[in-house]
């Protein structure tokens, strides 16, 4: 008879066991690492509910969730917010089912309105729970990496290699940084988000991420004549690298800094033994999708699940307000950057996307 599965709420003392399990799990994303929740709690003050399953004292599954709560407006558990994936990881369906059942039980105790899971579950239909798939046209873009950047470069079409060299010929220089690169990264990122009409994350979140992830986080900067014109932040596990944020200044796009930025992220990943590079989510055939596909990335399903049985109806009601959101976005684009940087983080911490 197999030993009983014991599920507990993870604390900081469980971090080493938690992260060891994540690094050993081939499809785990860097967002599954304990550091993601720690950084969110440090920067935004959200509570964490990280469920840890053990059997015979061995970790057999995890379910990281963040509690987003705003009185009268918001009360949900998300696995995980501010990224594409971060759902349940388990050695088998039995462990997965027990973790999900425990999540539902915790949600009831907290009077949670919705539990959202992001990432492929092992079962098409989640047993003993009310989770249903959220309809979406979003997909992940993943690239299987070769053993070295040299092999990868030779696999690229000549046009792609030429575009990478173009940025260098234009005088764009790339360099890796750590926490000392947050200010340069943020100067580009916040401008780009304002131009897109979207509230920006707090700079404190990026400082927290760099501090909590340590050697598993890096910031790459593309510079021209001493000025940062492009920046990206990458996170890694033993097997996978993800790039949750990358931005360039639009007035310098003619210099192709994004090509140099992404090439160096791919180069670092391949040369450091990573097996997969996660470009993040896209909508098929849109601009970002085509940009990622040119590097050889392939589309993969990106199912999200909700505990709300009427989630789709709620989404449809929200969609009827899209005109209003478009107006707000248009106004946001005209707000001076300093003001957008002051107001944005106070809103962004409650937007789970």
From TrEMBL:
InterPro entries: Acyl_CoA_acyltransferase, BioF2-like_GNAT_dom, FEMABX, PEP-CTERM_FemAB-rel, PG_Glycine_Bridge_Synth
A Pfam family: Acetyltransf_6
UniProt keywords, alphabetically: Acyltransferase, Cell shape, Cell wall biogenesis/degradation, Peptidoglycan synthesis, Transferase
Domain of life from the UniProt record: Bacteria
Domain BioF2-like acetyltransferase: 155-293
PROSITE patterns: FEMABX
Family under the similarity heading: Belongs to the FemABX family.
PANTHER family for the chain: LIPID II:GLYCINE GLYCYLTRANSFERASE
UniProt-recorded name of the protein: FemAB family PEP-CTERM system-associated protein
Record lineage: Bacteria, Pseudomonadati, Thermodesulfobacteriota, Desulfobulbia, Desulfobulbales
């Amino acid at each position: 008879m197999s030993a009983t599965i014991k599920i507990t709420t993870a604390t900081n003392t469980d971090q080493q066991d938690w992260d060891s399990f994540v690094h050993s799990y081939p499809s785990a994303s860097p967002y599954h690492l304990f550091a993601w929740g720690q950084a969110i709690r440090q920067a935004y003050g959200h509570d964490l509910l990280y469920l840890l399953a053990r059997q015979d004292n061995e970790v057999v599954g995890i379910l990281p969730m963040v509690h987003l709560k705003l009185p009268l407006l918001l009360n949900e558990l998300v696995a995980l917010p501010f990224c594409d994936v971060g759902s349940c990881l388990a050695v088998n369906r039995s462990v997965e089912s027990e973790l999900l059942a425990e999540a539902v039980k915790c949600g009831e105790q907290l009077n949670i309105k919705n539990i959202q899971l992001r990432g492929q579950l092992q079962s098409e239909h989640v047993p003993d729970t009310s989770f249903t798939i959220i309809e979406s046209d979003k997909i992940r873009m993943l690239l299987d990496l070769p053993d070295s950047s040299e092999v990868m470069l030779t696999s690229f079409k000549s046009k792609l290699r030429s575009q990478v060299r173009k940025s260098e010929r234009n005088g764009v220089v790339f360099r890796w940084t750590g926490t000392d690169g947050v200010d340069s990264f943020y100067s580009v990122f916040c401008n780009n988000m304002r131009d897109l009409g979207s509230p920006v994350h707090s700079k404190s979140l990026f400082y927290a991420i760099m501090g909590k992830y340590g050697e598993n986080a890096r910031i790459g900067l593309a510079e021209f004549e001493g000025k940062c014109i492009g920046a990206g932040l990458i996170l890694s596990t033993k097997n996978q690298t993800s790039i949750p944020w990358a931005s360039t200044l639009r007035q310098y796009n003619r210099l192709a800094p994004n090509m140099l930025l992404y090439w160096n992220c791919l180069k670092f990943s391949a040369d450091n033994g990573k097996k997969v590079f996660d470009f993040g989510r896209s909508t098929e055939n849109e601009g970002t999708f085509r940009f990622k596909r040119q590097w050889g990335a392939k589309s993969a399903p990106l199912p999200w699940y909700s505990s709300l049985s009427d989630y789709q109806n709620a989404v449809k009601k929200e969609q009827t307000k899209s005109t209003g959101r478009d107006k707000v976005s248009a106004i946001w684009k005209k707000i001076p950057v300093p003001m957008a940087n002051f107001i944005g983080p106070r809103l962004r911490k409650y937007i789970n996307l």
